[in-house]
Structure formats: C-alpha cells, structure tokens
Amino acid sequence: MNTDMTNKFKGRFGSFGGQYIAETLMPAMSEVENAFNIAWNEKSFHEELSFYLKEFVGRPSPLFYAERLTERLAGAKIYLKREDLNHTGAHKINNTMGQALLARRMNKTRLIAETGAGQHGVATATAAAIFGFTCDVFMGEEDMKRQEENVKRMYMLGAKIIPVHSGTKTLKDAMNEAMREWIATSQDTFYVIGSAAGPHPYPMIVREFQKIIGEETKQQIMEKENRLPDSVIACVGGGSNAIGIFTPFIQLKSVKLIGVEAAGLGINTDQHAASITGGKVGILHGSKTYLLQTEDGQICNAHSISAGLDYPGVGPEHSWLHDENRVQYVSITDEEAVNAFMELTRFQGIIPALESSHAIAHTMKIAPSLPNDHIIIVNVSGRGDKDMQSVNQYLGKK
Ligand SMILES: *Cc1c(COP(=O)(O)O)cnc(C)c1O
Predict the structure, then answer these.
(1) Ligand 1: distance of its center to the CA of 70 in Å?
(2) 159 and 128 in contact (C-beta within 8 Å)?
(3) Centre of ligand 1 from the C-alpha of residue 87, in Å
(4) Are residues 320 and 385 in the same domain?
(5) I want to staple 262 with a disulfide (CB 3.0 to 4.6 A). Which of 150, 196, 309, 339 is the partner?
(6) CA-proximal residue: ligand 1, atom 1 (nearest)
C-alpha cells in the first residue's frame, strides 16, 4: 500500500495511528469521518442504534459473578462480562450494527468487509441481511479452508465471499484487497472494518461503537458491588473488545487495565501474534502501530490457536496506551489458553471463545495471589462453539 503521509496529524494517539493511505482513498475516508461525526451528535442516531442493540443483539449483556472459578482460584473475586451472549456469539456485532446504520444514513447500498476467522464476516453479513444491503466479504483462501463453518454461515446469510489469493492468503491480505476494492466502488459501497485498527477514522469509530461494553460494565459493577473494579482484563487481537471495555475506565486511575495478546507457541518463537509485547513500531493498513515484522520491514505471519487473535498488528490506541503505561500488555500461549478454555467450561458451564480464553488464562494466573476483596472483570468477548474442532485437535495432538 502507498504510504503517502496524507493528513499527517489526523487521528493520532500520541505518535500512533494516522492515515498512511493512498491519495485516492482520502475522499472515501473523509466521507465516512464526516458522516460519523454528524450521526454521533444526533439523538436520533443513538436512539436507532440503542433500539437494534437491545432488540436484535440482546444488550445489555450480563455481568456475571463467576462463583466457582473464584472459589477454585481462592483469591480475587471474578466477574465475567458476557459478550458471548450477543446475537452471533461475540462483541463484533456491536460494531457492524453501528457501521451498517451509518452506511444506511449515507445512502450506501453495499457493504464490504475483510475477515480472518470469519466472525466479523458473519457479523457484517448479519447486519447486511437485517438492513437489506448487498454484501461482499474478502477472505484469504487459507482462512476459507480453516473456517469452513463461518464461510457457510455467510453464504446462508446472503453474502458473497471473495477469495483472496495474494500474499499469505490470510487476514492482512484480505484487508488489502478490501481497501483496493473500496477505492473503486466507494460511491455506493461502505467498508465495514472489523477491529479498532486501520487508518483514521476507523480506530475511533470502532472504539465508539464498542465502548458500550465498558459503559454497561461500569454501571453493572456499581449496582452489584457499589464500587469500581480493581482490574479489567481483555484479550487483544486488533483490539476492539479490549478498547470497548477499557474506554470508560481509562480516566479512572485506580482501575488496572490489562490487555492479553496471543503468545502462540511462545513469545520467543516466530509463532505468535503478540504485536505489542513481541513486535516493533511500523506501518500496517494505513496506521502507525506496533506490529510483527522482519528486520527489513516485511510483515510477519502471525500465529495463534485462536483465529481471531491471528493478526500481525494492533489498533493504534493500544500502542499509545502501552507507551503511556496506562494499560499493561501481557501474553498467553496456546497451551495456557486451551487450559483456561477447559477450566471455564468445566467449572463455570461457559464455553468461551479461544480468543477470550487468553483473558481468562491471565486471570487464572494472577487471581490466586490477590486478596479476596480485589475485583477482576474479564471480558468474555465471544462463545466457543466455533472452536470445538481447534480444541479437540489440540488436545488430540497432546
Ligand atoms: C475477533 C475476535 C476477537 C479479536 O478481535 P478484537 O478486535 O481484538 O476484539 C476477540 N474475541 C472474539 C470472540 C472475536 O471474535
């Protein structure tokens, strides 16, 4: 992608973020930015969004006290934010409903999206179906093989899937293709980006649509405990579920925020997806941020057992929150994540997504040494029904 420094200071988080995009993409970006700013200031847009989040997505999602897990770990008191209970099974629908409503306001007729694991593709296809958009989803050929069930779900919802054969045939290539397609079609097409990553205004827009998670959480913990939590923990792929739950707490310095990246086979191997804890600053998908790259600046392949964390970059706001020391970023291996997956399943009756299992694994690591009155809230970003095959395969191999 062209790395022209258009609009150098727009959408910056410290020195991160920005719009490192081709000049030809600027009008489309500006159109989205302006439309969002207008909509976000209108009461009617918020009413519309709230209606669909409540009646279609099923919000608010519960904040659930994990009593047996708390007893087993015999330390901190653990609450789970149940994003797994949303329609389509994860937090992604919060964002796709928001962007689809924005697209409708802009009189667009077609949605395009990139997808890796297929979760964002399904959430976009779902929003397209309820509002009557045509929908094309770009997906790496390799991912289409690995995520067959989600490919079927997207077809079923009426979306067309466009296989991407370039590069490593995975998410980052799908995102490149989607942007290329958008340059040619932005007249009638809205590009729905799936995480708090990419060029400005997307990291800001996705954060605004996902911060409902943190707003509800804050209100719910005040109702249940009459005080703020001590720690809030979330997994970080591109960073949307994490920034969503963190945002209302960022100004509240007593609340410790922890982002959990995927360490794959280990942070010291080349088989991980830990962009902040194991990467360097560079430019990917129009944004300056931490990412996985070789000495000469080639983007590396990410690896994680959870397809949703398998992205070689991270949203720019997380890079900034890391450098500002406001959020602590840690990493969890495939093995630790699978253990946590089994633990929550067997001892709490909740099958979490493998992505979310990374946040649970870190909670299991730190909770035993914390006092009983320390409150941890973990974001269960999605449910694990989609991960049966991955977990069985992993446990079978061992
Ligand atoms: C996609 C996905 C993630 C990772 O994306 P973020 O933008 O980092 O939130 C995490 N959990 C689930 C369940 C997902 O589907």
Answers:
(1) 24
(2) yes
(3) 15
(4) yes
(5) 309
(6) 308
